[in-house]
Automatic annotation (TrEMBL):
This is ATP-dependent RNA helicase HrpA. Gene3D superfamilies: 1.20.120.1080. Keywords: ATP-binding, Helicase, Hydrolase, Nucleotide-binding. GO terms for molecular function: helicase activity. Pfam families: HA2_C. The keyword Hydrolase applies.
Amino acid sequence: MVLEAQKFGCVREVMIITAGLSIQDPRERPADKKQASDEKHRRFADKDSDFLAYVNLWNYLAGAAESAVRECFPPPVQKRFP
């Protein structure tokens, strides 16, 4: 899968999915917290693929990290490097 991704121009997405498959499934949770967990996971769900939920989550986290880094810079630096 990883080797073929280059041909289809989706290396980034395949690497995210591959990394996601290498860890414990985040959808596994205690039965008493199932509903709360489902609600939190719903924002990253994709109607066509469970695997794309990993990509959606990655994109969200990458955006949040970028925002957090930008907030660390004082306003003069933010103006120079938008």
